């Protein structure tokens, strides 16, 4: 039988769609899944692509089915299952074969796996994939970490299956070992912030303006045609417009307000903290998901304090909607600036030389956070000025000057009305603190020196100084 060019393990949501995508691009692919019955089911349902699918019922069969040197994509649950698959595969593969972990791995695990595979003769790649089910099937954004030589060996197939932005593939080699998975983690951190800010704006429309889901949907639909044009705004409009077959109500009104999370948002925050890079909007978004999961506690607190006396926002509708649109735009810019700053910090810390213009470019299509704004970001990173922070790129200074007054007004109105907007207000707090030439940490330094003799710097003088605290009353 003709050998396959590539193999894939894990026929779940992502793996099965990625396998079909690979087959559609003309590659013969061998597939295996832990629950072996899914393998034959998968081929049976592959329609006209079935001829290019080689079903394998064991890892040994998979290795036998692929032409050496064998590239094998592992697309299983992140964590221990990946280690188990690698351990099992080591017995079946040979020198020069390429193992590609395409799941949402923690980059520390990826770095460890690189170390563990050193000297094994096997090549390892840690690859972030974004785009969900649809992206995997028709073109995801692909973030590759490993040696440049290993990238060259798989570049052909990965660029072929990736999304294209105006013809440019959204797949790239970003740096050594954990670089690809780190970038995917921060992609997801930004995704959390973006989704949370959208949800906060929805909350203002629902509770502050008493708008129903069906009324809110076209607002997002309209925004999707303007500066907020993005996949997340597009699907928000669709989610809000959908009906529940069981009750006839909007689906969003029957969904429990408890958000799940699989770890990438939390990892983004942990890494930002470790690197000492502020990522307040992402932190707020992760915290908001945790708070959302405390449904029973929230209900008990509502009983204890009484329901939030939400004051209806009374303002001309069109002006308010314009402010909400601009507030979301400003909040998003701050969140992306934070995400890119965390990646720049990691790049310095780990010596990765992460290519920021390339990252912005490969996020323009295929991935969950794809948006028109990412094209502006790609230009900003390419033309200079954004090295320290995206907020300093001339194009973004102009955009933020136009949008931050709206963010300010919306955060203030929401606070007065009693509507929680933790990510939007964190984004605003970050922006205001970042642009304040003289902040208030002089007082913190005074306090630290008072209680711990930590010393402080004086304006315009060299050296460490202490305050006159002993003589202070
Ligand atoms: N869904 C999404 O939108 C995205 C997911 N990802 C990442 O892709 C990876 C796969 O996710 P997804 O396809 O959604 O997950 P699914 O739950 O749909 O599929 C999980 C797959 O992992 C396999 N698996 C689970 N545990 C083990 C194990 N111990 N040993 C071997 N195989 C195992 C399952 O096999 P079995 O059939 O036997 O249970 C199945 O094939 C994850 O890392 C996820 O974070 C990345 C981007 C987007
Ligand atoms: O990687 C993804 C999208 O980019 C996955 O859908 C991931 O599961 C999203 O994270 P979470 O489940 O924590 O919301």
From TrEMBL:
Matching InterPro entries, A to Z? 6-PGluconate_DH-like_C_sf, 6PGD_dom2, 6PGDH_C, 6PGDH_Gnd/GntZ, 6PGDH_NADP-bd, 6PGdom_BS, NAD(P)-bd_dom_sf, Pgluconate_DH
In this protein, which residues make up the domain named 6-phosphogluconate dehydrogenase C-terminal? 180-470
Mind telling me which Pfam families this protein's record contains? 6PGD (PF00393), NAD_binding_2 (PF03446)
- Enzyme Commission number(s) from the entry: 1.1.1.44
Q: Keyword ATP-binding on this protein?
A: no
Task: List the catalysed reactions.
Answer: 6-phospho-D-gluconate + NADP(+) = D-ribulose 5-phosphate + CO2 + NADPH
Q: Which GO terms describe its molecular function?
A: phosphogluconate dehydrogenase (decarboxylating) activity
> Which pathway does it serve?
Carbohydrate degradation; pentose phosphate pathway; D-ribulose 5-phosphate from D-glucose 6-phosphate (oxidative stage): step 3/3
Q: Which UniProt keywords apply?
A: Gluconate utilization, NADP, Oxidoreductase, Pentose shunt
Q: Name the job this protein performs.
A: Catalyzes the oxidative decarboxylation of 6-phosphogluconate to ribulose 5-phosphate and CO(2), with concomitant reduction of NADP to NADPH.
Q: Which family does it belong to?
A: Belongs to the 6-phosphogluconate dehydrogenase family.
NCBIfam families recorded for this chain? Answer: gnd (TIGR00873), PRK09287.1 (NF006765)
Quaternary organization: Homodimer.
Q: What is this protein called?
A: 6-phosphogluconate dehydrogenase, decarboxylating
Q: Which organism is it from?
A: Ollibium composti
Q: What is the lineage of its organism?
A: Bacteria, Pseudomonadati, Pseudomonadota, Alphaproteobacteria, Hyphomicrobiales
Q: Gene that codes for this?
A: gndA
């Amino acid at each position: 039988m003709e050998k396959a060019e590539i193999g894939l393990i894990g026929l779940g949501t992502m793996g099965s769609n990625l396998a079909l995508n690979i087959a559609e691009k003309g590659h013969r692919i061998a597939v295996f899944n832990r629950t072996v019955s899914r393998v034959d089911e998968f081929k049976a349902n592959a329609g006209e692509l079935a001829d290019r699918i080689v079903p394998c019922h064991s890892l040994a069969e998979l290795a036998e089915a692929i032409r050496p040197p064998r590239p094998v994509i592992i697309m299983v649950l992140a964590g221990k299952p990946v280690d188990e698959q690698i351990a099992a595969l080591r017995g079946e593969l040979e020198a020069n074969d390429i193992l590609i972990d395409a799941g949402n791995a923690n980059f520390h695990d990826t770095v460890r796996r690189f170390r563990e595979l050193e000297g094994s003769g096997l090549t390892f790649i840690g690859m972030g994939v974004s785009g969900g089910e649809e992206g995997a099937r028709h073109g995801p954004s692909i973030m590759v970490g490993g040696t440049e030589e290993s990238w060259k060996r798989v570049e052909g197939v990965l660029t072929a299956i990736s999304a294209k932005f105006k013809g440019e593939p959204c797949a790239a080699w970003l740096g050594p070992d954990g670089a690809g998975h780190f970038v995917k983690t921060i992609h997801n951190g930004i995704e959390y912030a973006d989704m949370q800010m959208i949800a906060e704006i929805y909350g203002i429309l629902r509770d502050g303006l008493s708008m129903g889901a069906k009324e809110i949907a076209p607002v997002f639909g309209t925004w999707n045609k303007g500066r907020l044009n993005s996949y997340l705004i597009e699907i928000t409009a669709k989610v809000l417009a959908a009906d529940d077959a069981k009750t006839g109500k909007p689906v969003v009104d029957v969904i429990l307000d408890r958000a799940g999370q699989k770890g990438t948002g939390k990892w983004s925050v942990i890494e930002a903290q470790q690197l000492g890079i502020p990522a307040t909007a992402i932190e707020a978004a992760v915290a908001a998901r945790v708070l959302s999961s405390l449904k029973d506690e929230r209900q008990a607190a509502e009983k204890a304090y009484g329901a939030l006396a939400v004051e209806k926002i009374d303002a001309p509708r069109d002006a308010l909607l314009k402010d909400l649109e601009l507030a979301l735009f400003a909040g998003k810019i701050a969140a992306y600036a934070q995400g890119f700053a965390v990646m720049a910090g990691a790049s310095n810390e780990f010596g990765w030389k992460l290519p920021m213009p390339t990252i912005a470019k490969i996020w323009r299509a295929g991935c969950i956070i794809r948006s028109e704004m990412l094209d502006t970001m790609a230009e900003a990173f390419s033309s200079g000025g954004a090295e320290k922070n995206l907020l300093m790129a001339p194009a973004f200074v102009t955009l933020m000057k136009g949008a931050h007054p709206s963010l300010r007004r919306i955060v203030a109105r929401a606070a007065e009305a009693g509507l929680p907007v933790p990510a939007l207000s964190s984004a605003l707090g970050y922006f205001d603190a970042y642009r304040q030439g003289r902040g208030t940490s002089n007082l913190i330094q005074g306090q630290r020196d008072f209680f711990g003799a930590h010393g402080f710097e004086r304006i315009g003088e060299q050296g460490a100084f202490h305050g006159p605290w002993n003589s202070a009353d």
